[in-house]
């Protein structure tokens, strides 16, 4: 017994099997370690999917899987997400969903199960994910085994480890679970604002721009103020930089 912290060093740390996953330094490394952890718990295939928040664009769902690509293509082409009972389940429940024929209730769900089974997705478990930032998702682990008592007995043995893995995996992959940033739209500028903007990019002062465009210096400053507002920046240099980034102007050659 270590008298400093009162912990018996001979007792294994329950998180130690997942140390490599917890210390993964990239998205790809985390996925590799997650697959290895799933295999160590007796499952061949898995899918980890998280919505950063409810009702986001499907393209923003973070999804990593080693399911057969043919099954993923079939699933997407036939829009089976609308039929898949595990998807709806994860929005309303927290307990594990046991992947067996009797869990697929409707004819459409049963057809989904039968098709999945042809790809080796025959039995397994779906563990819903609830994140502190409103994230919703799942870790599903499956294997090609006949459903029945032998599978349930083995699942009972591994379920505590799978539940812990679900939480560790979410923490490890949370940095990569974020919606894509919408493309920034360029503001609509008047012809005069574009003229002023181009001369600003050339390094001209307000007085010089006024002389070039035959308008007053106050008029130039008025347009510069409008440009700052439209680009949502405070400095004229930032106006120019943002306009270049958005492709509205180019620097003089």
From TrEMBL:
- Which Pfam families does the entry link to? Autoind_bind (PF03472), GerE (PF00196)
Keywords from UniProt, A to Z, are: DNA-binding, Transcription, Transcription regulation
GO molecular function annotation: DNA binding
Extent of the signal sequence: none
Q: Which InterPro entries match?
A: Sig_transdc_resp-reg_C-effctor (IPR016032), TF_LuxR_autoind-bd_dom (IPR005143), TF_LuxR_autoind-bd_dom_sf (IPR036693), Tscrpt_reg_LuxR_C (IPR000792), WH-like_DNA-bd_sf (IPR036388)
Highest taxon in the source lineage: Bacteria
Q: What is this protein called?
A: LuxR family quorum-sensing transcriptional regulator LasR
Q: A Gene Ontology biological process annotation?
A: regulation of DNA-templated transcription
Write down the PANTHER family for this protein, in alphabetical order. DNA-BINDING TRANSCRIPTIONAL ACTIVATOR DEVR_DOSR (PTHR44688:SF16)
Q: Which residues form the HTH luxR-type domain?
A: 182-247
